[in-house]
Amino acid sequence: MSEPLRCREPATPVLQQDDEHVRVTRWDFGPGAETGFHRHGMAYVVVPVTDGTLLLELPGGQTATADLKAGVSYARSAGVEHNVVNAGSAPLSFVEIELKHLPG
Questions:
Q1: So what's the pLDDT on residue 6?
Q2: Which residues neighbour 53 within 8 Å (Cβ) at sequence distance 6 or greater?
Q3: pLDDT tens, 28-71?
Q4: pLDDT at 1 over 70
Q5: Is residue 97 a contact partner of residue 22, using CB atoms and an 8 Å limit?
Q6: Which distant-in-sequence residues (6+ apart) come within 8 Å of 96 by Cβ?
Q7: What is the pLDDT, as a whole number, of residue 60?
Q8: Which residue range or ranges hold the Cupin type-2 domain (predicted)?
Q9: Which residues fall within 8 angstroms of residue 21, CB to CB, at 6 or more apart?
Q10: CA 17 to chain centre
């Protein structure tokens, strides 16, 4: 079964650092913007810049939500698969730090 066609605005990634240890990307989302479905090849840490709510579209059509609080970070293991969508009505931003020594 294929995923349905999406017509959302894309989130904007800005690469801030990329060296032998880490890749740091700031992600900016307008209301309703999405990353597109992807798989994380490395463990990563997310540091929210703004408060907001994410809709996480997961494999198999499942969904989840995550409430972000500016400055309150969280970590995930390599292998996570999802599409990340700004579920709120205001712009949302976070910084993603991928840890190159923890591939998956």
A1: 63
A2: 65, 66, 67, 68, 86, 87, 88
A3: 999 999 999 999 999 999 999 999 999 999 999 999 999 999 99
A4: no
A5: yes
A6: 24, 25, 26, 27, 44, 45, 46
A7: 94
A8: 26-97
A9: 99, 100, 101
A10: 17
pLDDT (tens digit per residue) in 89-98: 999 999 999 9
> Which helix H or strand E contains 27, and what residues bound it?
strand 22-29
What the chain holds in terms of domains, given with CATH numbers, is 12-103 (2.60.120.10)
Q: At 47, which amino acid appears?
A: V
Angstrom distance (rounded) from CA 37 to CA 57: 8
CB atoms within 10 A of CB 38: 11
Going 41 to 46 to 80 to 88, the CA torsion angle's sign is: negative
CA atoms within 13 A on the CB side of 5: 1
The predicted pLDDT at position 2 comes to 60
β partners of residue 103: 42
According to the model, what pLDDT value does residue 3 have? 57
